Amino acid sequence: MRNYRTFGALEEGYLRDHPEEVDDYITILFDEYAQSGNTAALLSSLRIVSRVKGVSRVAEAAGMSRKGVQKALSENGDPEFSSVNTIMHTMGYRL
Length: 95
Known about the structure:
Helix content is 69%, strand content 0%. With 95 residues, it is an all-alpha fold. The longest helix is centred in the N-terminal third of the chain and has 15 residues, at 22-36.
């Protein structure tokens, strides 16, 4: 049986190899979110960016635990907007 990579894994790998494109990725992400209101897609993409930037570094800078960041950006979680907003600000982005 073959192991296939997910689209998220491909995006993450691409952004790791091309960190100069993260800001453009975020701009597109926010534009798409403004049109669709798809919170799950927003959190999924922010999760990818947090892994590219380093979840531990993001958590430390945000004054949160690593687990707290992961929970806030979880597709199964019900994050508070303030937590997501803090994480975005820590990564240098504003919604």
